[in-house]
Amino acid sequence: MKKVAIIMGSDSDLPVVTPAIKQLKELGIETEVRVMSAHRTPKEANEFSSKAIENGFGVIIAAAGMAAHLGGVLAASTTLPVIGIPCSAKVLDGMDAMLATVMMPPGIPVATVGVNAAKNAAILAAEIIAVGDDGLMKKLQEMRQEMSRQVREKDAALQEKLKEI
């Protein structure tokens, strides 16, 4: 099974990416988590992404706030799918990061999830890898079925509470 790289622009992004790390581990996907900056360590970021395929990665997740160019910098040096997680910062509540992550030039896409939506990034990465892995696809299908069961259970409980009103 291919690995997933989670690259953070700063170690302060760890609380944001932790749900992605946990979700990928739950699905049995090997994950490598690193700190690299689009602006402070561009050579390292370029080298990592340019060698990601030969190093066994299937998807790269890039989490960054403020200028949030990390996803684009990583995507520029690989043909692997790159998923951006815009991280909320004190300024503009992550809108700046979201726009910087979404607005990529033609030919260098970065898939983007919502601000701080690391769990969705992990699930999207798993879905991409699962295209060639039936076992992982089955785990994802079971996860969806469990989510549906939980919603139905909550609805049934709500209906019972409404009878008391």
Task: Provide key terms for this protein.
alpha/beta; 165 residues; 17% strand
Could you characterize the architecture of this molecule?
With 165 residues, the chain is α/β, with parallel strands linked by helices. It is 48% helix and 17% strand. The chain contains 6 helices and 5 strands. A 5-stranded parallel sheet has the order 2-1-3-4-5. β3 (57-65), α3 (70-75) and β4 form a beta-alpha-beta unit. α1 (14-26) packs parallel to α5. The protein is globular and about 60 Å long. It starts with a strand and ends with a helix. The mean pLDDT is 95.
Task: State the gist of this model.
With 165 residues, the chain is of the alpha/beta class.
